[in-house]
Design a protein that fits this description.
Elements lengths: L1 E6 L7 H15 L3 E6 L22 H12 L2 E7 L7 H10 L6 E3 L9 E3 L5 E7 L4 H8 L2 H10 L7 E7 L7 H14 L5 H5 L22
Parallel strand pairs: 1-2, 1-3, 3-6, 6-7
Antiparallel strand pairs: 4-5
Helix pairs in contact: 1-6
Length: about 220
């Protein structure tokens, strides 16, 4: 399968980077063709221009390539921290510029403003891996879970992705080396939802410890 993996985090060496490395290594070991973007490292410009807003608006070559990769993907993995109940700006800008009409969705003929979509994405499964520095119980009680609605309904569900799996890892800032190592191994197993055959025979030794990845970062690498 062709799998698109996106990382949205500004700090090199963060736990998010370790998650993304684990995801890419696991998918490649399972035989997938992986397209990986570390948006911050690549200098992705998150600002949507007025010229791009129309469906037939001109696209910069780099944005056109991202659109082609999204449309071709048979599975999608997104890694990012929970900041103010949202993805970081660079990832939100990727959504604004790349998850476009006639690439990811179109509105049904005769729609008069209700926003009834036809999802166009080829991928039917997406995995979202988040990190947080707030206890899950307090997060839910105080803020709800805005990221669940954003990814499962407002973005992926809107664009035709039927199966959205999401896992939040935390609390990062107080986590131990052992906890982070276990979370990386868990992330490797989670993304195997994109490899149904491998799920029937789990290969735990192909997780972080056998993937040639750097050790999990210290807790400050949110």
């Amino acid at each position: 399968m062709k799998i698109l993996v996106l990382l949205g985090h500004p700090q090199s060496g963060s736990f998010n980077h370790s998650l993304a490395e684990t995801v890419v290594a696991t998918l490649e070991k399972d035989g997938h063709e992986v397209v990986f973007h570390d948006l911050q490292a690549e200098g992705f410009d998150p600002v949507l221009t007025a010229a791009e807003i129309p469906t037939d608006g001109p696209l910069e070559p780099g944005i056109a390539r991202h659109c082609e990769e999204l449309a071709a993907a048979e599975g999608i993995v997104v890694v990012h921290p929970n900041w103010w109940g949202q993805p970081p700006a660079i990832l939100k800008g990727w959504i604004d510029r790349v998850v476009r009409p006639e690439v990811a969705y179109r509105f049904l003929e005769g729609d008069s403003g209700e926003g009834v979509p036809e999802g166009l994405l080829r991928a039917k499964t997406a995995v979202v891996l988040n990190t947080s520095n707030t206890e899950a119980s307090r997060e839910l009680a105080a803020f709800g879970d805005p990221l669940e609605g954003l990814w499962a309904r407002c973005i992926f569900g809107f664009c035709g992705v039927e199966d959205v799996r999401r896992r939040n890892f935390g609390v990062i800032v107080t986590s131990t080396d052992a906890e982070r190592a276990a979370w990386l191994d868990e992330a490797a197993e989670i993304v195997r939802v994109l490899s149904p055959a491998s799920r029937t025979t789990p290969r735990h030794d192909e997780g972080r410890h056998k993937a040639g990845l750097r050790p999990p970062p210290k807790a400050e690498g949110f």
